[in-house]
Amino acid sequence: MIYPLAGLVLGALLGAMGARRRGGTRLDVLQWASVGLILGGLLGVFVLVIVSRSLAA
Prior knowledge:
The protein is mostly helical.
């Protein structure tokens, strides 16, 4: 399914926008985008597992 990929993209965008809004440098934006990417991907995997288990029951 597409949940982990959507989580990756959304997390990276939100992390980069948050760092840019706070006036961060290019490396700050990159770091927060990567943090958001990791967290969004993990959240997407959890959502995928929950949805898969609920459909299998």
